[in-house]
Amino acid sequence: xxxxxxxPEVPANGQPDxxxxxxxxxxxxxxxxRMHHLDFLRATLMLAGxxxxxxxAFSGRSWGVTSPExxxxxxxxxxxxxxxxxxxxxxxxxxxxxxxxQRAGVRHWIRGRLTRxxxxxxxxxxxxxxxxxxxxxxxxxxxxxxxxxxxxxxxxSPGMWIGHLWFLVNLIIYCIALAALITKVGSPRRLNWVxxxxxxxxxxxxITFVAVAxxxxxxxVMAGAWHxxxxxxxxxxxxxxxxxxxxxxxxxxxxxxxxxxxxERIASRPRVVTYIVGIVLVVxxxxxxxxxxxxxxxxxxxAHVVLITGGGLYAARIxxxxxxxxxxxxxxxxxxxxxxxxxxxxxxxxxIMLFSSLLFETGVxxxxxxxxxxxxxxxxCAAVYEALSLWSFTRLISTGYSKRSTTIFRAxxxx
Length: 415
Hints:
The chain crosses the membrane at residues 40-60, 80-101, 121-141, 161-185, 206-226, 238-258, 270-289, 301-327, 334-355, 367-388. With 415 residues, this protein is mainly alpha-helical.
């Protein structure tokens, strides 16, 4: 499969047609503009992990740290964020995957992915995870944890070391699988068949709905098989059920990234019916999540997976369309968020636990504690990012990228 962009057509006189050059230049400019939309949205989704985990902490639910008071509104907020945050993130990751693989070549792309994902993962496992496990053991000892496990007991589980870094592990596996798939199925004829199939899905709203329902059903079957064969235990809890639940979003995004027209379409303003179906599904998921604890039935869990997959796809379509309308030009804030988002995400989890547990001891109202924890965590993570950006080595281990990055004091606009 040829991975290079097609050059302007050259007529017999040896000079490129000016009309063709102008049209292809315009298409390239539009593509770059669209990438700013997706970059901004991807960074925002990573930062949304702060209110999501803070809401879990102060909702009274069983999480790493648990508020002594139960606040249902914060639990609903966490459910709402969960519906659209990671589905949209993995769709965007899939879009960039095939887009860059076609532009730069599969080998170059996969080497870059393994570097950009693998180095921060190793850094997180060696630096962040031990601190987080130690913090959890202290929280458990103080009675604010979901268990009474000591540090040694927590550290004996590989899944506890992975923690909030699970998405990096999943992305690495997805990218390796996609690289193998592109290499295997990458002939022009087969690729054209895939793109025609993807195009047909968007031809009518009814067909789109059927495709989404089919993807949700397949995901439910995979999730059921995952639990039946106890795959989480077989992988020593390194891979949890989110490995199966996130997979369809990544590969659907990979289909979108096959053609520039697909990226343009998904970033366009959604139809009214998309908003209606998306809102109905999101409301149904949030309502169903509250009932799931009472219905301890396998069929209820599978129905929940179907709703989450369908709602996540529609919510992602809406969010990407909104981002395409709002972020029309690159700016300093967007560039800073894009550069800082991964570092902020890696550090936010233990900081949420730290600030939340300290606030629990003060007896502050959960709603106020939630806001304080969010603000304190964001400011702290931003300061950590700025400090790590001072040296190439610390930039490399925390972001997988050693070149100078955008900081508050050096926020250039990339074109």
